[in-house]
Amino acid sequence: MRKPAECETMVHIRAEIDRLDEALVRLLAERAGYIDRAAEIKAEVDLPARIGSRVEEVVTNVRRHATAYGLPPELVEKLWRRLIDWSIAREENRLGPDSMRKDG
């Protein structure tokens, strides 16, 4: 692992980006496991896949993290809203339509 300033060639840069991409995919897969478990729990307690207050809590958290790490919070929010939508769709595939559940 090299820090950005330690990369002397594009080969170094590309290797580090590839390493990080693999780590990001691994983390997304780990996150999906929690999404799947959330769907199981929500089914047990009759909660919908989309809980608006939780969506906004997640967005607030990632905007704060983005700012702390020097990233544009608007960009990170857009990315996360897409991730959240994907996660909710994944839950809905397991739960069925939200119209049958109460809002939590």
TrEMBL record:
SMART domains: CM_2. Transmembrane segments: none annotated. Substrate binds at R14, R31, K42, E91. Keywords: Isomerase. Its EC number is 5.4.99.5. Residues 4-95 form the Chorismate mutase domain. SUPFAM superfamilies: Chorismate mutase II. PROSITE patterns: CHORISMATE_MUT_2. GO terms for molecular function: carbon-oxygen lyase activity; chorismate mutase activity. GO terms for biological process: chorismate metabolic process; salicylic acid biosynthetic process. NCBIfam families: CM-like. This is chorismate mutase.
